[in-house]
């Protein structure tokens, strides 16, 4: 796991955008796994600006979002579908027919969404880069604590703490769905590479567990320790409980040195 600590959240967003631009430079038809929430917002803004200025193109990109609430229509302003349009897709040159979320419209059967979504990801050739945030309780997507580390896209019941935290985005608490469809942990681990972003003191405990804790379903993000190519971009506040912080900085310096010395060989 590569752990890179930045001074502030703006630097985390800039680095995240840089890595996505680099991937699309190499592979313009990449398949991206995308996340919602507060954390990736500045990175999406940066990518929208980059796209407007011709520094990156999403014209051939396919996307799969991590999760969606059950029973919200795409047009519902509280759905993740709406969030993605509002925060990213409406501002870039992506073909919206290549954007995917595990939607379960009102009245639909949520149990049938997972297998279809898994098949769609496979048909697209798999995810090249999965962008992740992390919940305070260590969830990734909506894989709440005690999720099977071998789970696939399916319905998850949200914990009370997640409902409370995400309740701030709903005008009316009664309209907040209690269940969601989320990619599973095994689905996330299938991605070729993973880019996890976390900022702020409230993520410090989850980040410490993710990087230094034992692999456990109680902190679902710890499953990422089993993946070969995970990069964690954090700000100082989110890194504040890391015990081996000095070591991660040291590793970064060595990586930089090797790249400078051997790049292009
Ligand atoms: C949400 C989403 C996750 C997100 C996480 C953190 O509930 N389901 O995909 O990464 O919680 O959200 P935030 O970035 O707003 O802290």
Which characteristics define this entry?
265 residues, alpha/beta, 7-stranded parallel β-sheet, 3-stranded antiparallel β-sheet, 8 helices, binds 2-amino-2-deoxy-6-O-phosphono-alpha-D-glucopyranose
- What percentage of amino acids are in beta strands? 15-25%
The topology string of helices and strands comes to EHEHEEHEHEEHEHEHEH
List unreliable stretches of 5+ residues: none
Helical segment tally?
A: 8
Characterize the biggest β-sheet: 7 strands, parallel
Q: Which radius of gyration do the C-alpha atoms yield?
A: 18 Å
- Strand arrangement within the widest β-sheet reads 1-10-9-6-2-3-5
Total count of strands: 10
Shape: globular
Which structural class do you get from the secondary structure elements?
alpha/beta
- Associated small molecules: 2-amino-2-deoxy-6-O-phosphono-alpha-D-glucopyranose
Bin the helical content: 25-40%
Mean pLDDT: 96
Distance between the termini: 24 Å
Architecture overview:
With about 260 residues, the protein is of the alpha/beta class. The chain is about 35% helix and about 15% strand. It has helices spanning about 10-25, 40-50, 80-85, 115-125, 160-165, 185-190, 205-210, 245-260, and strands at about 1-5, 30-35, 60-65, 65-70, 100, 130, 155, 180, 195-200, 230-235. α1 packs across α2 (about 40-50). The mean pLDDT is about 95. 2-amino-2-deoxy-6-O-phosphono-alpha-D-glucopyranose binds next to α5.
Set out the fold topology.
Elements lengths: L1 E5 L2 H18 L4 E4 L6 H12 L9 E4 L1 E3 L10 H8 L11 E2 L12 H11 L5 E4 L21 E4 L2 H7 L12 E4 L2 H5 L3 E6 L5 H9 L17 E6 L9 H18 L3
Parallel strand pairs: 1-10, 2-3, 2-6, 3-5, 6-9, 9-10
Antiparallel strand pairs: 4-8, 7-8
Helix pairs in contact: 1-2
